[in-house]
Amino acid sequence: MTHHEQPSDRLDTLIRSVLPADRAAMSAARERQGQLTKPPGALGLLEDLSVRLAGVFGTPRPHPAGSAVIVAAGDHGVVAEGVSAFPPEVTPAMVANFLAVTPAGPGGAAVNAIARTVGTRVYVADVGVNADLPDHPALVQAKVRRGTRNLRAESALTRDEVTRAVLAGADLARVAVQDGADLIVPGEMGIGNTTPAAAVTARMLGLDARDVTGRGTGVDDATLTHKAGVVTDALARGASSAQDPLGVMADLGGLELAFMLGVMLQAAALRRAVVLDGFVEGSAALVGVALAPNLADYLFPAGVCAERGHAAQLAHLQLTPMFDLGLRLGEGTGGVLAVPLLLSAAATLRDMQTFAEAGVPGSETQDRS
Hints:
The N and C termini lie far apart (51 Å). Helix 3 packs across helix 14 (333-351), helix 5 runs parallel beside helix 14 (333-351) and helix 10 (245-252) packs antiparallel against helix 12 (279-291). The chain has two domains: 7-62 and 348-368, Nicotinate-nucleotide-dimethylbenzimidazole phosphoribosyltransferase (CobT), small domain (5,6-Dimethylbenzimidazole Phosphoribosyltransferase, Chain: A, domain 1, Orthogonal Bundle); 66-343, Nicotinate-nucleotide-dimethylbenzimidazole phosphoribosyltransferase (CobT), large domain (Rossmann fold, 3-Layer(aba) Sandwich). The strands form two sheets. Strands 5-4-1-6-7-8 form a six-stranded parallel beta sheet, with helices on both faces. The chain contains 16 helices and eight strands. By secondary structure, it is of the alpha/beta class.
């Protein structure tokens, strides 16, 4: 940010920087796919993914290499309404777990274990934890405020707080890209955050709270009904409109949601692929695509998660998930699991030979198809 540039102006510039994927590269990639040494369509969804990656990276033979998961942590005032099976003290405890020294390496959470396995770098940011976290060399200090306000009773954030969180996410995404990441996974940790995600999704898609409110950390039937009622009450305040996406994020969202929005916008502006984990990430993506429609070109949903409402998000974004493992953990875990699939999709397009290159009979048939 220049000395004279205001945060809102910087955000506007970022939104405008998200350009469409390279259609010429996609067309060339599609043509190459049709000539590779395999029956047409035999690699299924990997073929579609490879063509989309060609568009992101601007070449019919994309070669993404490094990957990063950026875990943003924040708390939510709405947990006072009893919407989660876990207390808010879990958020700072889990941040400590992400940063812990273990025999296997840095970090003792699921996302650390999976990221180590697939070679993905983990970044951890405090954007809104309702606690004073100790300094740690691997913790990015980006706290905008200590948790959100209770969205049932009032707007969770101000527009300025949202802007600051979005720009903090953009800053860390830029660092991850500079460190070599071509695939960026936004992740989150925040007890209660499926409640704001449900509220944002309901508002952006014009759906009833009950259609998009799920069990989150695993609440029982009575708590699920209560949780949907809390989301209904938040929507009934009528303090935001889908025509003002940043207003929806301020009214109904969360600091880690806004931070992930910034990660997505910056990664796309730098022409990197964004791997979507689950429902909370999907709610941020809905806001992002409403702000910058071209963002959809850069979004690659990992799996459909167990949270109610995720399928509606993906349908609206016209995106096809790669798997269904019943995941509902968050942290970016599903997104990291998808990294090898995306790298493999790109490798097939880039490294497989065509029938002509391999001298394999069948190239004439391919040419006519």
